[in-house]
Write a structure and sequence with these properties.
The chain is mainly alpha-helical. It has a single domain, classed as Sodium/glucose cotransporter (Up-down Bundle), CATH 1.20.1730.10. It is built from 21 helices and 2 strands. A two-stranded antiparallel ribbon has the order 1-2.
């Protein structure tokens, strides 16, 4: 009962903050980018909280339970991506658009913006959906089965949608200070207690070496193709993560946007490494627990994704367990509201404002976006049934965003030769490739079939490789076959000194 009480009190505290902050929302700029006045420490917290979501709490944990420390390749893709983003963060803030798709329109065309919007809507609804799924599992564990995962998903969806509707980006960056702090503290204190629960470091290592020695290898028994396949989705998503670019635009100045990226780099590495270690210890603790294994001896993937929460609920002292479970609530809420926010911003600006409500007032735009948040939240909930595990949802959505948008976006900032038509075709080809693979996987799930050298259903660990090859090849070939762009097309994106603060 104490776990339930702690989590409810924590959620109520966050709700109170959101209600209070909602009173400060006066304009659409306040709602979308927090009035462009977010200081560094708040920006770092919200960037870390956005990245560490259910995909980490469940997906990363589950992958660690299955593969051991080789999971770090999955996380390292994002770490490398953050360093690349560091080089462009200041330019993004100086250009000062609201969304990533605004950047695509500015460099390429309105067609690129529309395609980017469609891609983000589809992928981010999947990401928001697995926050609901993760929240449902969390509530089921917290209630000791009194609430089913299905009912828990509804509760999680209502809470996340409610938080986002209240105050938009203002609410998100405000509560993420608390979410980030409790997330970091919980992971730090959980690890030593989890190790102690299994008898110490030596006992943990001995159990893993006996049960699955490859779990202590950086390659985990895999080849380099697997490493590329597992690292690419997180790298590419980080490159084209629209909520991150939207939050750069929330920074109080360009210099602080860049400083926040380094803070994010440190925070993400620390939290994800701690999560990996906790899940690895969890493998040792539950190595003989039949709940985590199928009848044929293979790992129960859905159960493996719950390993960190199971440790919190079953292995830790009450105080530490309460802290970890509160962190679980923080992770689900902080990521869910961000992805609903970003998706609704794209729909509001790129569809409703662009085509239907061109003369809408600032207050009308806010209400349009609030309605979009609710609608998108409902659609995200409905999409959950199409996927078995959170990791599967993560890999497909990451690749959808990354393969479609990352090549064109990186080229905008680093390659003067990329042309407008090449950017459009790269986005379209990447998106269509991922959709095609997902459809073929669904069609041939019960009857594996070889097509163009790939076996369908394709292992989602490798889905990014063909999608990226198609997108990058299209970008390069079409650019070289079409006339060079004008200097005015690329100057603001390439030259730091050329960028001046502007308003959309």
């Amino acid at each position: 009962m104490i776990y339930v009480t702690v989590v409810i009190l924590y959620v109520l505290m966050l709700l109170g903050i959101s209600v209070y902050k909602s009173r400060t929302v006066k304009t659409d700029e306040d709602f979308m980018v927090a009035g462009r006045g977010v200081p560094v420490y708040m920006l770092v917290a919200t960037l870390v909280c956005t990245w560490i979501g259910s995909g980490s709490l469940f997906g990363t944990a589950g992958l660690t339970f299955r593969t051991g420390i080789s999971e770090l390749w999955f996380s390292a893709g994002a770490w490398i991506g953050i360093l690349v983003v560091y080089t462009i963060a200041a330019r993004v803030r100086k250009i000062a658009q609201y969304t990533l798709t605004d950047l695509l329109e500015k460099r390429y065309s309105q067609v690129a913006k529309v395609l980017g919007t469609i891609t983000i809507i589809i992928a981010y609804m999947v990401i928001a959906g697995y926050q609901f799924k993760g929240g449902g599992r969390f509530i089921a564990i917290l209630s000791e089965g009194a609430i089913t995962p299905e009912t828990g998903m509804i509760i999680a969806a209502v809470l996340i949608i409610g938080f986002t509707v209240l105050a938009g980006m203002v609410s998100i960056v405000s509560i993420d200070i608390f979410n980030g702090s409790i997330m970091l503290l919980a992971m730090i204190v959980t690890l030593p207690f989890a190790i102690a629960a299994h008898g110490g470091v030596d006992a943990v290592v001995t159990t893993i070496q006996t049960q699955q020695p490859s779990h202590l290898s950086i390659m985990g028994g895999h080849d380099y193709v697997w490493v590329v396949g597992i690292a690419l989705p997180t790298f590419l998503l980080l490159m084209s993560e629209s909520s991150m670019y939207q939050k750069f635009s929330s920074a109080d100045n360009a210099r602080n946007a860049r400083r926040a990226v380094m803070g994010m780099f440190i925070g993400v590495i620390v939290v994800e490494t701690l999560m990996m270690l906790i899940a690895l210890v969890g493998f040792a603790i539950y190595a003989d627990d039949p709940r985590f294994f199928m009848a044929d001896g293979s790992i129960n993937r859905a159960m493996a994704e719950e390993i960190i929460l199971r440790i919190g609920f079953e292995q830790l002292p009450v105080i530490i367990g309460s802290l970890l479970l509160a962190a679980g609530a923080a992770i689900v809420i902080s990521t869910g509201n961000t992805f609903l926010m970003v998706t609704s911003t794209n729909v509001t600006r790129d569809i409703f404002q662009a085509f239907f409500f061109k003369k809408a007032t600032s207050s009308q735009v806010v209400w349009i976006q609030r309605c979009c948040i609710v609608g998108i939240g409902v659609l995200a909930y409905l999409m959950m049934s199409q996927f078995e595990t959170i990791l599967e949802m993560a890999l497909i959505s990451y690749t959808m965003i990354g393969a479609s948008l990352a090549p064109a976006l990186l080229a905008a900032f680093f390659w003067k030769r990329v042309t407008r038509i090449a950017g459009v075709m790269s986005i379209a080809s990447g998106m269509l490739t991922v959709i095609t693979i997902a459809v073929l996987n669904s069609v041939f799930k019960g009857n594996p079939t070889e097509i163009l050298g790939y076996i369908f259903p394709m292992n989602t660990d490798y889905i990014a490789i063909p999608a990226v090859i198609v997108s990058v090849t299209t970008l390069v070939v079409v650019s070289l076959l079409t006339p060079k762009p004008l200097e005015s097309d690329w100057n603001e994106f390439i030259d730091d000194s050329a960028t001046t603060p502007s308003q959309p």
